[in-house]
Design brief:
Layout (H helix, E strand, L loop, with lengths): L8 E3 L4 E3 L19 E3 L3 H9 L4 H4 L2 E5 L9 H11 L6 E6 L3 H6 L13 H13 L2 E5 L12 H13 L5 E3 L14 H11 L3 E4 L3 H7 L8 H9 L4 E2 L12 H8 L2 H6 L2 H25 L13
Parallel strand pairs: 1-4, 4-5, 5-6, 6-7, 7-8, 8-9
Antiparallel strand pairs: 2-3
Helix pairs in contact: 3-5
Length: 307
């Protein structure tokens, strides 16, 4: 982070663990490497906090960690969120990255034959209520297109808008603008983004991962004019990110995923560039945390154990 001039970062675990099948000699490193199932791994939240707490206090405050180790179709999942949040009430920024519709992962997730996660599931409404009461934001991956299709799924869109209509005061960040792998032949997606941001003031969007290279930019890697104009219009509604998974130190991949935004920021006005580059993320992820961490009357952790 210091090398790349990154002052703060949102730190995420991954909610799913990949089953290691007995016929494989080595454990796979990525959930899509074979067809074995993935299951929700609740301890992932504690592992994330353990890593952050290895840092000194000043460095710890540079991270906004998110809660994700629960099944979004489980009506009791809110109890996990409460337990983890109340153990570290001054550390968590929200819940995310939550996986609702997510192409390959949806197909591999254990329990998909019973219920597919969706934003407007009743179990999530219980979590939204808790998050709104405690100032936590929601960060979610929810595809709006089927893999390989350029036609938006009306029912998947409705699952998102139901939440935005029912929870107008809850900050909801849609990862990758609703785009996912094999879903990037959407030349008019900027029009949809413009319309839905006009309609719902609580909605934020992240432009990391494939949406940037495959939708926002042209074949030469230059941001399209229509998206530049969109960012100028909705300058307070977007965040950037690396979406880097697993490896950071000693890797050029993180640098590539951060520096790619330089072309976009150079095309924006100073105000828009500052908002996308850091101010929007500071506002939604860190403003509340900073206030909590300055309040010395709040404990760093409650007395009860994680399990």
């Amino acid at each position: 982070m210091d090398t790349l001039n990154i002052s703060h970062a949102v730190a995420l675990s991954i909610s799913h663990h990949k089953k290691w099948r007995q016929e494989r000699r080595r454990q796979v490193k990525y959930y899509g490497d074979d067809n074995s199932t993935c299951y929700v791994y609740a301890y992932t939240d504690q592992l994330l906090i353990d890593e952050i707490q290895k840092l000194n206090k000043e460095a710890q405050c540079r991270f906004a960690p998110m809660i994700c180790g629960f099944d979004p179709t489980d009506m009791s999942a809110v109890e996990h969120v409460k337990l983890v949040h109340q153990k570290y009430p001054t550390i968590w920024a929200g819940c995310g990255e939550l996986f609702f519709r997510h192409d390959d992962l949806t197909n591999l997730a254990m329990g998909r034959d019973q219920e597919i996660p969706r934003p407007d599931h009743p179990a999530m409404y219980r979590i939204y209520e808790y998050c709104q009461e405690n100032g936590l934001i929601i960060q979610a991956h929810h595809n709006l297109y089927k893999s390989g299709s350029s036609e938006m799924m009306a029912d998947w869109l409705a699952q998102l808008t139901n939440v935005l209509q029912d929870w107008p005061d809850l900050t909801f960040l849609l990862c990758h603008c609703g785009i996912s792998r094999l879903c990037w032949d959407q030349d008019g997606h900027h029009n949809f983004v413009d319309q839905i941001l006009d309609q719902f003031s609580s909605l934020m969007m992240d432009i990391s991962w494939v949406v940037y290279e495959c939708v926002i930019c042209d074949i030469d890697g230059n941001p399209k004019d229509c998206w530049v104009q969109l960012f100028e219009k909705h300058t307070t509604r977007f965040t950037i990110g690396s979406d880097q998974v697993g490896k950071f130190s000693g890797s050029l991949r993180l640098a590539q995923k951060v520096h790619k935004y330089n072309k976009l920021l150079a095309l924006l006005s100073d105000e828009a560039a500052e908002n996308l580059g850091h101010k929007n993320a500071e506002r939604i992820y860190f403003h509340r945390l900073k206030k909590l961490q300055q309040n010395e009357s709040l404990p760093n952790a409650l007395a009860h154990s994680f399990y």
